[in-house]
Amino acid sequence: MSAVIAEPTAPDTAQRDVVFDVRNITLRFGGVTSINDVSLQMYRDEILAVIGPNGAGKTSLFNSLTGVYTPQEGTITLAGRPGDAPRSVIGEKTHVINHMGVARTFQNIRLFPALTALENVKVGVETRMKAGPLSAMLGLPYQRREERESTERAYELLTLVGLRSRANELAGSLAYGEQRRLEIARALGTNPGVILLDEPAAGTNPAEKRDLADLIRLVNREHNISVLLIEHDMKLVMSVADRLVVLNFGSKIAEGLPEEIQKNPAVIAAYLGTSAEEAAGEVETQPELHTIADDTANMTSLDDAGATTQEETP
Amino acid sequence: MRTRTLVNVAAMSAVGALALTACSNSTGGGGLSSSAGGGGGGTTYTVAFEGPLSGDNAQLGINEVNGVQLAIDQANAKKDLGFTVKLLKADDGGDASKAPAAAAQVLQDATVMGVVGPSFSGASKAVGKIYGAANLTIVNPSASNGTLQTLGFPTWHRVVPNDYAEGPAVADWMAKKFKKVFVVNDLSDYGAGVAGAVEKELKAKGVTVQTAGVDAKTTDYGAISQTVKQSGAQAMFYGGYDAQGALFAKALTAVGFPGARVAGNGVKSSVFTTGAGAAGNGWYFSCGCQDATVAPSAKDFTAAYTAKFNTPPSTYSPEAFDATNILLAAIKAAKAAGTVDRKSVNDQVSKTDFAGITGQIKFGPDGDLPAGTGTVNLYTQKDGKIISLGDVSKAS
Amino acid sequence: MTDFLNYLVLGLTRGSMYALIALGYTLVYGVLQLINFAHSEVFMSGAFGSYLIVGMFVHDGQHLAWWQVTLVMFLGLLSGALVGAAVAWGLERVAYRPLRRRGAPKLAFLISAIGMSFFLSQLAGKLFNRLSQNQFPSYFDQNKAVFTIPGSGATVSRIQLIVIVSAVIMMVFLDRLVSGTKLGRSIRGVAEDAPTAALMGIDIDKTISRTFIIGGALGGAAGFLFGTTFVFSNIMGFIPGVKAFAAAVLGGIGNIRGAMIGGLLLGVVENLVPTFPWNGSGGWIGLQWTDVVAFVVLVLVLVFRPTGILGERLGRAA
Amino acid sequence: MSASVQRRPGESILSNPLVGRALGCLALSFVLALMIGKQEGTQQDFGLAFRQAVLGPRILWFLLIGVLVFVLLTFWPRVQPYLNRPGIRPLAVGGLTVVVAYALLKWTDSTAVSDGKFGTLSDAASQTGTLAPLARTFFTAPLPWVLFLVAFAVGAAAVVIRRAVLSWVGAAIAVLAGVWAWYSHSLVQSLLGSPDHSTGALVALLGFLTIAAACAATALSAEESANTRGFINGVFAWRPGMPLVGVALLLGLAGFAIATWFSPGNRNATLVDTASMFSTTGLSPLSKAYLGWLGYVLFALSLALAAYAAYRRDARLGWGAAGLGLVSLVLNLVALHDISAVGASTAYDGATGAWQNLGTGGWLACATFLLLAGAGYIVATAGSERGTIARTKADIAAGIGKIPGKSKALILFVLAGALFYPPMATPFWQKVLVSEIGIYVLLAIGLNVVVGWAGLLDLGFIAFYAIGSYTTAYFVGALPIQPPEWMRLSPLLCIPIAIIICLIAGVSLGAPTLRLRGDYLAIVTLGFGEIIRIVAVNNPGNFTNGPRGAFGIPQPEIHLGPIHIDWGQASLQYWYLLLVIVGLVILAFNRLEQSRLGRAWAAIREDEVAAQATGVNTTRVKLLAFAIGASTSGVAGVFFASQIGYINPDNFVLNNSILVVAYVVFGGMGSLPGAMAGAAVLTWLPEFLKDQVPAEDRQMWIGAVILLMMIFRPAGLIPAKRRAAELHGLDEPSSAETTAVAANEGMGATK
């Protein structure tokens, strides 16, 4: 399996097309600083992972990128799809940013549970369509064609994420891992240039994680969509990410290739909340650290619940 | 519209012949016992009441329907009509949009020979045409809006004077005494109508007028009383109903308004006197009616009503009582003249000249009490009792 | 100035009642995130209940000494509160708890409360009467001025003083209750985060029940004050209920102090704004626009502060 | 109360469940005693009615009810197993139906029987010498009830002890009782001779037949537990279209053989009588033939054709049956028109005009032909239905997949009822249909868009209805301020204008307020509704004519070339106009729900943040919901204004807004049929209750009904499919909690 993975090439930063250009953003809630002077660049067609301990500001960063929050300081520019001119997203509404080519998933799955899987994807697909209420009420041919197209596209995407057979099930009744994949399909439906995945592997079992990793690569390589990934599961991160950014207490503490990050003492310290020296001693008790310090570690306890028979053997 | 008047009258006689109920002892069988025997006093006619029996305005409808019920019971007990009378209650909730259904309910009963109601002007406007098309006579006990008589409802009659008759008369009286008047209305059809008429006449007489409206559902009259007091008006006119008037009276007294308080017919009732208590003393009321509480026949009415319903008659109970008696007299007259059907009853009602407890009632060609016949009287509350001051045009 | 103060006192009197009722809405909203549409009927039942009790002790035309009046007032408030609390408790049991058990959608609660509201108001009408203006016995001169505000001719009457003072006492009491007692802490806990509160050993059902009881007691007491000041009837609840709901939203629904401020503010606005500039002209806007003024103020506040003056969160209030 | 007894032990103040249950039952009987007690008093005897209701011996009866409920609940575990037996549900339904027919419904409209109910009628009939003895016996005091109780008890015993013999005895008694009741009633009716619209006897017959069917099911079923839904599905799945044929057979038999076709004067002429009555008149030959023989032939032919086509599942035969049914329907209508017109022109016994004096028979025949045509259509199209179709018997029994033709059949039943029931109804019910039920159905459809689909709580919906009404009043010139002459419109032309104005009003209310969520939006919309009403009352610029309202709004008319339709005062015409409007709106909205906008509404309702992140322009989508809902309401306003001819601000009070919300939720939020059913039921109920309880108490009973519905069926009468998934309770993230969730995310509070 790991044979499929292309070796991450060292990024030639000067040449590459920048998708997100985040410069010195700071986000505060009342007295709490959630993101503190963070800058980062995301390049076209890469898989960039943002990692960090709980409360590090990862999701806040996502929310800032997608317009849910507006940082008090700093700039964010976006060139969503290849060829787009960079544009500021600060102060734009979420759906506008989405139209600029940014799709996302949520850490705590947020599907539309009362709609079927197919309809969930169609909601995404159809935000790119034109037919208004009047043409729908009159059933105009133009609207019908769009409807047909959106159904076809939604089926394609469901096939891509392996949910074709469950297209007519209510999203709320799907299994957890299926919901995760459905969320990705819905995001892909909006025809994004970049997709933001917020802990897509949380709560999935090892087999599902493998599938997910394949899916992420597929989306990235075949569909040429840049991926920004938040993930706690270091195994997954290390296997798919081209590049990593590490946040802690709202600040960026490291950035680089996976293997560099793995050895970065500041990162290990951040995960333990102690100094780098002490970190080594605690590796045995901290499952997450296993995956950082030792590539063959087990999953987190949450994941163990899902993993009954399969054993991860890289 | 399925007009089945004749059809159903024929059906009625067939039923009588069948003697479907020989001697039923069951309760509530008013229709059954009445059809016993087939001849003689066996025919049953129905008087319908249309008004609010549910909803927020139910109390007014209950006041009226009690008056109707009393008149019918008294007539049936006397046994001198030559027929039996039944009451059909059609509830329109005081709502114009529900009135047509209530009217349909009334109309589909072929024995209905006349309607007392609808209680409100709005409902009256919604159904006047429908009743007219069916020739069913309407004797209205309470909808006093001054435009109803102009709308061309062919079978419409009214036993209360309209706002426009009452308003100018009392305004003339006020103009003689006061130079600055505050006119308050309750934003209801009636209240706004009478207040508007007063305001117009006062202005015509050169009196300074200030106006305000307070929704009839309000209970807090503090702010309006304060405003009236503050305006420095010498008198206040209230267009509205008795219960609200009582609250207003108390609030005016509470803020110490020094001027005179005048109100229309809607306020003049026992509900006001008991509700307002001492605060009602000194209020003036205009009314195009006889003093219902002192006329001898009215005293009997009050006693009978109180005995039957365990509560004194209230707003428009006497008018409903009179309206019913007019209808009964008309049916009797129609029977004497030959045929009893909706048309003949309507003709008889139009010819009415009836001495009721609220006064002598005679309808003009438009169905309204003619402007001249109803002298508008002035009343005042003194020591918790309403007393008459006589004709308002002659009052000092 | 005199007139301004007079309107202000009127506004505060009305506002105190709004505030007391609004507290019921806000408390329930705090723990359940639901509008208790039947709260207006709790208010109504407080008036009927206290009338039944007070009517046993005093009758029309009596002239009681001040301490007797105080006693009767206390009795009225207490009985109104008890009846209100009992009705609110039953309301929660019948119209809310079964729906919670079934995991009903949010609007189902609203509609069951509306059904309950129809039911209670009409049942009261059926059992007692449907007269629009029942009155409490008059056993003292309510309108006698107690004192004159210094520097102006404006006065405060006895009943106004009684309403404002007793409302303030109850609100302070509630504030202490919620911030300082175990019950208050569990209410705040449920309001903040019910599942976590349950994990901490708080009995959610019991807490919700008690929240209804507290809100009902305040509403019932307000019913007594309202009935004593004005009149009472089986449909008296609707309009004050809507206004108090607006007041609760104005202050920030779910926020106890917000409800108090919202209620007082709404009462004052209703009296002051339509009559402005208080110079005897009847006001530029006019009293017939009172409700429009109230709602426009509400909308303006919400446009600038979408969660009300003090914002949400029962927990933060104390 | 009853629900509270099901609580788990140990979590209430009264921790013993038995004590709690007993108190609950006591409270229930107490409340019942109050509800059925004496009517109000005055302030003088304040509380008298209250004391009378609960003191005195009558309370004992209610306590008995409480005890019964208590016993039933306590022994519930023992009773429950029987509740799944085959036949128990139809038995219960049938029993209830008969009780309703005996206790509540009218058995005659004749004014000779005071309230027309069963008790009064049977008292009278049992003492009427001229009545045939068979009928007189039936009506003799306890017999009808005894018959019913025996049939019911035998049926119940059969269910419990499962003896086939007993079942058949029960069925026989039930059939006997039903037919006897129906026959006795028809004898009385022919004796009374007046036109009749009462339903009691028919409902009783249906109830008894249901009991008989229950008994038969008990005898025939070998299953240990019943699957009623599966059985019904099975009936529909056996042969698509066949259920329609079956119902059409019954209706046709009643229509052609029993029911009245022409009823001028005190005649009640069946088809045979009518034919002979008109044999010598100038009735057109076609109609004469129809009355004489053609009608029967057409009935038999189309019935046979539809049944055969359904049996063979033959699409071509199906189309044939559909065509024949429609042709027959047209012929039937022509004949109906002709007899009424000719009858009127000869003033036959006081016949009044075209389409007047018609009995139920002709309309039943119409419904028959419509259903047969529909059956043919279903047969013809059953093969081409899309969606997952139930394949096996097990699927069908378990309710998996779609049953071909089932939804079409249900729609056809509703359509047949909507088209042909109103002409059979009394004028009162016709009026109620057009002036209350129909209008509120339209309003509920509109509000369903806002509340049900987009999930926005709008408590001021009636404002748009008001705007629609006042718009009409202005453009027809019924307001003090007149429109310029060239802008004066006829009422029907006001519809597009009202739609546009309400669209604008909806958007201008929505734009500033849509960023408010949930309950804030509710109070703001409520305020908006009140503002509109108060503006109408206060009459600025003398535009609205204040509380006096707008009088003289003309009835709608159409003058289009040779077509002249004047709606006038009659109710029926409005009903058909309304059907057209509602039908168009349903078609359009049904498409809308399945379109991208419908899905976007569902998305923002379910999760607004996720919808935004998926690119849904939530503001636009919400505004569209407001605007579309508002314009529907505006159409209702136009219809209302021109139908009643008079409007005033009292028609638009806050209470009505709240009621419409209640209708939508009662029926089933987000479900078009649900919203319509909710509005229809809750506007019908007060008019029905008119004859059952004191008028003043109706709202109390309605409140109780709403409450019970929400307790026992919180998703409403006909829950929406999309909504059904949401019923997980308060811990499910709802739109109200989205901000809080977002805040959590923002704080980086992962896991």
Q: What is this entry, summarized?
A:
The complex is a heterotetramer of chains A (314), B (396), C (318) and D (751). Chain A is 39% helix and 20% strand.
How do the strands and helices of this protein lay out in sequence?
The complex is a heterotetramer of chains A (314), B (396), C (318) and D (751).
Chain A (H helix, E strand, L loop, with lengths): L17 E12 L2 E12 L3 E5 L6 H8 L7 E6 L8 E2 L5 H6 L2 E3 L12 H10 L6 H6 L2 H20 L15 H14 L4 E5 L7 H17 L3 E5 L3 H7 L2 E6 L2 E6 L1 H6 L1 H8 L3 H7 L4 H7 L7 H6 L8
Parallel strand pairs in A: 3-8, 3-9, 6-7, 7-8
Antiparallel strand pairs in A: 1-2, 1-4, 4-5, 9-10
Chain B lengths: L4 H14 L11 H5 L9 E8 L6 H21 L5 E8 L7 H10 L3 E5 L4 H13 L3 E4 L15 E3 L4 H15 L2 E6 L3 H16 L3 E6 L8 H10 L3 E5 L2 H14 L4 E4 L6 H7 L6 E5 L8 H14 L7 H21 L4 H9 L2 E4 L2 E4 L14 E6 L2 E7 L5
Parallel strand pairs in B: 1-2, 1-3, 3-4, 4-5, 6-7, 6-8, 8-9, 9-10
Antiparallel strand pairs in B: 10-13, 11-12, 13-14
Chain C lengths: L1 H31 L6 H19 L8 H37 L3 H22 L17 E4 L6 E3 H23 L1 H11 L1 H6 L4 H26 L8 H14 L4 H17 L17 H15 L9 H4 L1
Helix pairs in contact in C: 1-5, 1-6, 1-8, 1-9, 1-10, 2-3, 2-4, 2-8, 2-9, 3-4, 3-8, 5-6, 5-8, 6-8, 9-10, 9-11, 10-11
Helix content of chain D: 55-70%
Shape, principal axes of CA atoms of chain D: globular
Show unreliable segments of chain D.
1-12, 726-751
Helix content of chain C: over 70%
Q: How would you state the average pLDDT of chain C, rounded?
A: 90
Q: How many DSSP helices of chain D?
A: 31
Shape of chain C: globular
The biggest sheet of chain D amounts to:
2 strands, antiparallel
The greatest interface here is: C-D, 73 and 79 residues
Please tag this protein with its features.
heterotetramer; B: 396 residues; alpha/beta; 2 domains; 14 strands; C: 318 residues; mainly alpha; 2% strand; disordered C terminus
Describe this structure in words.
The complex is a heterotetramer of chains A (314), B (396), C (318) and D (751). Helices cover 39% and strands 20% of the residues of chain A. With 314 residues, chain A is α/β, with parallel strands linked by helices. The longest helix of chain A has 20 residues. Chain C is mainly alpha-helical and 318 residues long. Chain C has one domain. Chain C has a two-stranded antiparallel ribbon with strand order 1-2. In chain C, helix 9 runs parallel beside helix 11. The C terminus of chain C is likely disordered. Helix content of chain D is 66%, strand content 2%. Chain D has 31 helices and four strands. Chain D has a two-stranded antiparallel sheet with strand order 1-4. In chain D, strand 2 and strand 3 form a beta hairpin. Chain D is globular. Chains in contact: A-D, B-C, B-D, C-D. Chains C and D meet through helix 2, helix 3, helix 4, helix 8 and helix 9 of C and helix 1, helix 2, helix 22, helix 27 and helix 29 of D.
